[in-house]
Amino acid sequence: MTQEFDQQRHNPIDVEIEEVDSSLPVSGEREPHITEEDFADFIGKNADIYFRKFKKFSINAPDRFAISWNWAAFFFTYIWFAYRKMYRWAGLIFITGTALGIILPLLFPFWWIGICIAANFIYFRHARKNILELKTAHRFSKREQLSVALQVSGGVNKWILAIAIPFVLIELFLSALASF
User: What predicted TM-score, i.e. pTM, was given to this entire model?
Assistant: First the structure.
């Protein structure tokens, strides 16, 4: 009898626990869990490449910067940011890069390399923030609904390539003026 009593005292709840979908927020939980599938849906094409880089940044833990390299950001800088729907970053990089190229052109290469080193982390934070906002704001009854919402919110903006051409011309014009 004392053995049964000790068991009850150590295990006061005698029910089976159901498996909970970890992708949905639970009340009292700070934020929902993000899965590889969430990132794949948000990123779209090349998700496997980005996810390998994102693993360095602690996906479901506090953010941790790690050095990585992004060739697309190297060759296209702000255009890549806009293509990946990070419009504020694209604008900030365009304005800062143009001003730096005109005012302190010797520092520009260091700034550019810094952007390429940080680009994957910036994209990781952008993706993670948007995924968390979607999962927190909406209760999706099916995974397919969440998947569609992530694809619409994330992915790429192919039209930005046509829009970016005038900005490239402006940047070239301003650089040419600065060299005179």
Answer: 0.76
